[in-house]
Amino acid sequence: MKEKKIILVSCGPFEKEFLRKIGHAVDLEFRIPVEIEDGHIDLEPFYSPGRRQYEGNKLLQKVSTCTKSDFTKIVGLFRVDLFIPILTYIFGQAMLRGDAAVVSVYRLKNELYGMRKNDALLLDRTIKEVVHELGHTFGLIHCHVPNCVMRSSTYVEDIDQKTTHLCLRCRKAFEEVGE
Amino acid sequence: MAEKISILIVDDEESVRDSLFNWFVEDGYDVECAENAKKALLLLESRQFDIVLADIKMPGMDGMEMHRRIRALNKETIVIIMTAFASVDTAVQALKDGAYDYVTKPFDPDDLSHLIRNATTHIALKAENEALRRKVTTLEDIDDLIGNSDAIRKVLKQVESVAQSNTSVIITGESGTGKELVARAIHSNSPRKYFPLISVHCGALTESLLESELFGHEKGAFTGATFNRKGRFEMADGGTIFLDEIATISPKMQIELLRVLETKSFVRVGGNKEISSDFRVICATNRDLRNMVKNGTFREDLFYRLNVVNITIPPLRERVDDIPLLVNHFIKKYCTSMSRDMITIEPAAVKHLEKFEFPGNVRELENMIERAIVIGNGREIKLKDLPMGKEAISSSVESLDELEMRHIEQILNKYHWNVSRSAKALNIDRVTLYNKIKKYDLKQED
């Protein structure tokens, strides 16, 4: 039986320690080993000049094919601003019950909102978004429990309200999937 | 929420459909997509959606026209129009036509979440409002189940014990005894009380109308079926269906009803989709169903399926003790509804009512009290305010001869036994009147 593995693909210049901490948090939450890889994705084809953003759905397709390793789930981490055609921006995107997800730190940074840079907060937000999007790949839908990581967040402040963990119900649903 | 909110996304751009589909699926909604208005309308004819999110500009039929057609199909569906900045005017027009809201593309994720959250809250509030309204009505009706006699106490005890179960009940009793009130009492005391009680008066509908009423119909199923319509069984999901005058249904409907009771599923008239509904059945009749089974006019299998518990409501003449209580209850009810001061009733009038036969049972008594309040002096109901004159006689007199005798006697008393004046009033000659007095052996009272 194939061993379970989550691949975290770095699609931009990220510090190794930053990636390691995300990988560690994901491992703890899903109890699935995480491997970190460098993704060499040319972002130009995904750029929309009209919106000056990068198309999340297309990047999602790309991420799922950007490694030769076997994996259970793959998540691409970006620094650029992502969008989907109908929405002005997204923090991340995933295939529900699929195998791939993408997350961008672009709108998770305090600086974007005129506030002081806060690396610890950025790491915390990124972990939450990565766990959230991976949760969707395991079939979890948005949760109404206020501190559950699967709660929908449309503002960055919403992300700060929740924890990095699944609530009991989402945990049960995740375990029932048998991933 | 018992059922997932369903959303239909209509947009000619695949990327928009996919993005919205993923967004709503992740939120736990039941989502379907259509690439144009025609396909959307076909989908809407086959099933119901709570929310339709439609692009305003599409090739072929545009969003505005589609919105109008959706309104014609089902007015309850919430339509949200998606538009580019250039077509805000058209979106405003859509709002005037009854669209719930509009959003300009691309949306801010938070705007979209808010919009759908508001729409779902609207749906939930509407459902809650309907449920509460039904509950209030039910509670009012329960208050009408008045009585202290042994006979009505027995009925109330039966209601109490049967309410908690899910068994079918047949309520029998003469017309006007309050069969529907008992059905409401069973429903209101059952675990199904927060779901609807749907009443169907089977006797008032023809076979085809009853079929469409009970099972619903699809658009175009017959002439005049211009909308999809939910049937009463579907509406009663989670609650109770009350079939009044069950003895009047045709043999064909008896078979159909038996099938629905056995499978708890049915197909709308003109449809092909099996619909399931969880309902409890309570029936009422003023006829002897057991006799009808013997005569072959009512199916035996259906009778046994329905007659798990039988509650018989006694006629008012067998619960005379309840008359004063009922009278006071109706006085209170009608004085309140007519915004009048509370009035009383003279003891002689109550005594008279207790002697009356009441072929129309409690309903007849209620009508008498209502009438007396309207025509009375506004302080006390007097004997003369009660329709014990002509109406009372007409309901207790058996033969024409008896009626004639009473009328002649009344006229003679009115004119103090002056035969000439009485004959003139009766429009007969004096000889005929003498003959009638002799025939009926009428005598002047001292």
Topology, element by element:
The complex is a heterodimer of chains A (179) and B (446).
Chain A: E1 6-11, H1 16-30, E2 34-38, E3 47-48, E4 53-55, H2 56-63, E5 73-78, E6 82-84, E7 87-90, E8 92-94, E9 100-104, H3 119-137, H4 156-161, H5 168-177
Parallel strand pairs in A: 1-2, 1-5, 4-6, 5-9
Antiparallel strand pairs in A: 3-4, 6-7, 8-9
Helix pairs in contact in A: 1-3
Chain B: E1 6-10, H1 14-26, E2 30-34, H2 37-46, E3 51-55, H3 63-73, E4 78-83, H4 88-96, E5 101-104, H5 109-143, H6 150-163, E6 169-172, H7 179-188, E7 197-201, H8 207-215, E8 216-217, E9 229-230, H9 232-235, E10 240-244, H10 251-263, E11 265-267, E12 274-276, E13 280-285, H11 289-295, H12 300-306, E14 309-312, H13 323-337, E15 344-345, H14 347-355, H15 361-375, E16 380-381, H16 390-396, H17 400-414, H18 419-426, H19 430-439
Parallel strand pairs in B: 1-2, 1-3, 3-4, 4-5, 6-13, 6-14, 7-10, 10-13, 15-16
Antiparallel strand pairs in B: 8-9, 11-12
